[in-house]
């Protein structure tokens, strides 16, 4: 063999990559996971979990019988948003809450009109916290309705003096009192899909080669381990980017999510995260050498934490310290934070730099470990 | 150290760390050998001898103690340098099953850096040798077992390596494919002076090699040319015909039990072939009241190996079995099969097959891979419904009452299908209750099978950790718990060494003599000699049915031209295929 080393490298890499792409395209299960599942997730998240709350039933308890207080009920009546219903007592409202017949209860205290005149009127809003995102929406509606009610009063000149007539909404969320998260649908979805494609699909591919004995044949050729790994990374990197493109398209055209940050930065950070996910998948795959085990480990070690612990479902600021620490170990957390900020806040350069650096470090370490555990050895 | 050695091993020792609960495994225990260049070298030995480990070490896939130089390179220090120059075909060649035959070849040609201009000629030759030319576009996963193996060999041979390693290339391959594979290898050695090291459990394959290394339990038992391996058995081999009217296996069983005078006995061509102990002078044995006409015959490699093996393991560990004096075979049919058909979609796995099995018979199903053996077998056991045809087992129509028939049959699958983490006793108790046994009867049956299979001492041992031979005995014990009329055995001897196979068949002989009907599949053609009658299937069709002698005759055996079962098998299958081609073109 008189060829140069580098010439051999490219030829072998191209050949292995071509093989990998063919396998990817011919194995229906792979395509389902890589392309069909992201589409299903997008559709479920887009339509199954609607963000719009329409005509939410709200119980109103009037402990203050004054006309002003009754006017509050009229103010809450915002067609399309809230459907207030006056009940006799707080107990009755609680019962409706427990029966889940109303999403919220608004308690107007006995001193409402008196304190309104003094400028520090309060109403209490009780919310069904079991569905945190819905509760958040309804709280927003109630607060908005009351704000516009007092604004109208001010416009009509009913409010006397600065500050007077302002209503303070004191809300308490029931059943999930700690909830303070904002629900970022699309950014979270991107993290999930990239984790799925990166870690879950690649976790299967090396393990499959071990299981089917194909690596043993492959090893006793001039192939280098790094070529085997690169040939795995390249096609799945492309599949991951297709998943990303699907999510971005869904974000723009399906959900009309605004994007305040820069698209190139987002793409760059997504590529970094995809490399991290591929690294996780390859390490799991090379260590377990068994498809079933690899898929279980990938699910438990990458996908579920990305779903639960990265701030997608629960805001990390509000979880117990131990879980927060775990969350902070996860690379998904940094990508989640970055992508949320890019979508909804714009280019926060210090954050971009910090999180990209962390993701790059993870990628280097994980791919390095994948290279170390992929040796041409059977013992 | 000779100049012309491609592999030089000195004191190679390979240990595997203890698995959980087990002890450290010494796979190779100080192996020293020189494999010559430009010739065929065989590593022979039973499963677990260390053949695969040695080949993997040579291929640089593992590290071991001791010194191992391959092509004059220290393989432990620079495995890649060795891997660049050799080709290796593992036991289970890793074909990419989603890729076509051509794509698999291209991949390996690319990886080995075979220049494009040289590929055309090389491919043409490989495809011609392997007879895969018609299937280049077919996915590798859709090839038969033998074809996969040939494609694996073609992929390893996309270039001419300086050393070719083949790890049991013929395991699980039918005799036809086996012969074809060997022809390819021999052609390469002749044409290209290729150095080849091949491992095999088939001792007859080692006869064709220039140098043979016999491995056993990690040690080198013998080495040299085939004649060196044969030498210990020279002058000790005899053949005699059994008394008229008696199957050869009964005489063989009696001779095998006579360990003072006999090293080994096998049925062969309707007669019994014996290796006598060197100390026992003259002819192997005479039986009271019956005279046996012993003829001396030339020793084979397998005979030499058996002599060596018996020296290592002098006594079989099993308790003596009752000596059978007569068969229980009767003319009464216990299995009737008429026009049996099984289709999977368009594919006809079993095509209009008819035969009967008589009570007390040992009935063998033989055929190449994909012949329909396993499908037929599963239908007989009631595990798979037939597409059409008539099937009566133990007097019960399987199409209408499979559950009732199943109670009358025992089934021992090819793989160890018992619970490895349960003890022998727990497995027996569980399967006994699964068959509906309980109370006193269950206890009595368990005690009976434990004694029958010499498992009393192992009753508390975890089944998964039993040695291979014991595992199989346990599997058979479980299959016989409910005293079935018929015992089905699927490839019971695959992976077993020669001694374990002798012991297995010795038990089957006794079992059949006690009246149990045995239906067995095997890919060791010589094991057909233990059967009363056999069928040979190919591509779903029944090609031959009868006693081994009748089948040999059908294959064209004459008094002048004796055939062994393997030759008869190849003859019949080839003739069957020619006929089919003729019918298809007509």
From TrEMBL, chain A:
Residue spans crossing the bilayer: 29-49, 183-207, 233-257, 263-285, 292-314, 351-373
Chief location: membrane
Membrane topology (UniProt): Multi-pass membrane protein
Record's keyword terms, sorted: Cell membrane, Membrane, Transmembrane, Transmembrane helix, Transport
Localization (cell): Cell membrane
ABC transmembrane type-2 domain: residues covered: 123-377
InterPro entries linked to this entry: ABC-2_transporter_component (IPR051449), ABC2_TM (IPR013525), ABC2_TM_bact-type (IPR047817)
Pfam families reported for this sequence: ABC2_membrane_3
PANTHER family (UniProt xref): MEMBRANE COMPONENT OF ABC TRANSPORTER YHHJ-RELATED, MULTIDRUG ABC TRANSPORTER PERMEASE YBHS-RELATED
Family: Belongs to the ABC-2 integral membrane protein family.
Protein name, per record: ABC transporter permease
Species, as recorded: Pigmentiphaga daeguensis
């Amino acid at each position: 063999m008189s060829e140069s080393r580098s010439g051999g490298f490219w030829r072998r890499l191209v050949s292995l990559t071509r093989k990998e792409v063919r396998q990817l395209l011919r194995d229906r299960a792979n395509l389902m996971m890589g392309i069909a599942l992201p589409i299903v997730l997008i559709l479920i998240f887009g339509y199954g979990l609607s963000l719009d709350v329409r005509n939410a039933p709200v119980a109103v308890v009037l402990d203050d019988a004054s006309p002003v207080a009754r006017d509050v009920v009229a103010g809450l009546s915002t067609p399309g948003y809230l459907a207030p219903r006056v009940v006799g007592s707080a107990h009755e409202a609680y019962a409706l809450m427990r029966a889940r017949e109303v999403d919220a209860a608004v308690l107007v205290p006995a001193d409402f009109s008196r304190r309104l005149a003094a400028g520090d009127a309060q109403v209490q809003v009780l919310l069904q916290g079991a569905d945190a995102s819905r509760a958040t929406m309804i709280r927003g509606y109630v607060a908005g309705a009351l704000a516009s009610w007092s604004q109208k009063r001010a416009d009509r000149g009913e409010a006397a003096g600065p500050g007077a007539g302002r209503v303070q909404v004191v809300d308490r969320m029931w059943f999930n009192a700690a909830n303070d998260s904002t629900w970022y649908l699309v950014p979270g979805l991107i993290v999930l899909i990239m984790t799925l494609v990166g870690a879950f699909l690649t976790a299967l591919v090396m393990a499959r080669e071990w299981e089917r004995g194909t690596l043993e044949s492959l090893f006793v050729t001039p192939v280098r381990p790094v070529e085997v790994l690169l040939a795995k990374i390249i096609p799945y990197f492309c599949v991951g980017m297709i998943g990303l493109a699907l999510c971005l398209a869904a974000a723009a055209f399906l959900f009309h999510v605004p994007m305040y940050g820069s698209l190139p930065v987002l793409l760059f950070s997504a590529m970094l995260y995809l490399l991290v996910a591929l690294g996780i998948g390859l390490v799991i795959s090379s260590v377990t050498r068994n498809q079933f085990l690899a898929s279980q480990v990938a699910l438990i070690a990458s996908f579920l934490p990305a779903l639960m612990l990265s701030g997608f479902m629960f805001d990390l600021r509000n979880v117990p310290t131990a879980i927060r620490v775990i969350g902070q170990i996860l690379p998904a957390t940094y990508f989640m934070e970055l992508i949320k900020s890019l979508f909804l806040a714009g280019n926060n350069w210090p954050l971009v730099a910090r999180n990209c650096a962390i993701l790059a470090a993870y990628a280097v370490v994980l791919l390095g470990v994948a290279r170390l555990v992929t040796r041409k050895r059977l013992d | 150290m000779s100049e012309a050695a491609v592999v030089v091993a000195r004191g190679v020792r390979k240990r595997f760390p203890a698995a959980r609960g087990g002890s450290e495994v010494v796979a190779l225990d100080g192996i020293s050998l020189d494999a010559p260049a430009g010739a065929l070298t065989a590593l022979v030995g039973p499963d677990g001898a260390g053949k695969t480990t040695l080949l993997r070490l040579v291929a640089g896939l593992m590290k071991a103690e001791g010194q191992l130089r391959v092509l004059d390179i220290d393989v432990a220090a620079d495995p890649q340098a060795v891997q660049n120059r050799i080709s290796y075909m593992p036991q289970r060649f890793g074909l990419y099953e989603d890729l076509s035959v051509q794509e698999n070849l291209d991949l390996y040609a690319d990886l080995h850096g075979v220049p494009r201009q040289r590929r055309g000629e090389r491919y043409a030759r490989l495809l011609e040798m392997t007879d895969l030319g018609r299937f280049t576009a077919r996915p590798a996963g859709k090839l038969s077992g033998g074809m996969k193996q040939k494609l694996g060999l073609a992929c390893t041979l996309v270039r001419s390596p300086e050393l070719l390693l083949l790890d049991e290339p013929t395991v699980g391959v039918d005799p036809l494919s086996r012969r074809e594979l060997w022809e390819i290898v021999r052609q390469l050695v002749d044409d290209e002076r290729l150095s080849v090291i091949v491992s095999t459990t088939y001792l007859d394959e080692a006869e064709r090699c220039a140098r043979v290394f016999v491995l056993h339990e990690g040690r080198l038992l013998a080495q040299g040319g085939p004649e060196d391996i044969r030498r210990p058995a020279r002058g000790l081999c005899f053949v005699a015909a059994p008394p008229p009217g008696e199957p050869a296996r009964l005489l063989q069983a009696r001779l095998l039990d006579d360990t003072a005078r006999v090293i080994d006995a096998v049925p062969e061509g309707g007669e019994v072939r014996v290796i006598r102990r060197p100390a026992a002078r003259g002819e192997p044995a005479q039986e009271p009241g019956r005279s046996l006409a012993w003829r001396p015959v030339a020793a084979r490699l397998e005979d030499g190996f058996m002599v060596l093996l018996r020296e290592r393991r002098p006594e079989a560990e099993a308790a003596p079995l009752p000596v059978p004096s007569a068969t229980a075979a009767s003319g009464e049919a216990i299995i009737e099969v008429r026009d049996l058909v099984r289709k999977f979609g368009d594919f006809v796995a079993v095509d209009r097959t008819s035969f009967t099995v008589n009570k007390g018979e040992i009935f063998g199903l033989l055929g190449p891979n994909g012949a329909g053996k396993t499908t037929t077998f599963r239908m007989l056991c009631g595990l798979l419904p037939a597409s059409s045809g008539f099937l009566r087992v133990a007097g019960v129509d399987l199409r209408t009452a499979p559950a009732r028939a199943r109670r009358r049959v025992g089934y021992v699958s090819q793989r160890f299908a018992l619970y490895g983490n349960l003890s022998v006793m727990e497995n027996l108790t569980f399967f006994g209750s699964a068959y509906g046994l309980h109370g006193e009867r269950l206890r009595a049956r368990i005690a009976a099978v434990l004694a029958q299979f010499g498992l009393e001492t192992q009753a508390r041992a975890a089944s998964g950790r039993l040695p291979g031979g014991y595992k199989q005995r346990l599997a058979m014990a479980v299959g016989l718990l409910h005293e079935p009329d018929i015992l089905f055995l699927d490839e019971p001897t695959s992976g077993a060494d020669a001694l374990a196979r002798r012991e297995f068949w010795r038990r089957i002989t006794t079992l059949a003599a006690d009246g149990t009907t045995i239906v067995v599949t095997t890919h060791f053609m010589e094991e057909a000699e233990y059967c009363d009658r056999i069928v040979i299937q190919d591509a779903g069709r029944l090609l031959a049915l009868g006693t081994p002698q009748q089948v040999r005759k059908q294959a064209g055996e004459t008094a002048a031209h004796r055939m062994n079962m393997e030759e008869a098998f190849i003859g019949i299958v080839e003739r069957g295929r020619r006929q089919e081609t003729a019918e298809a073109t007509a």
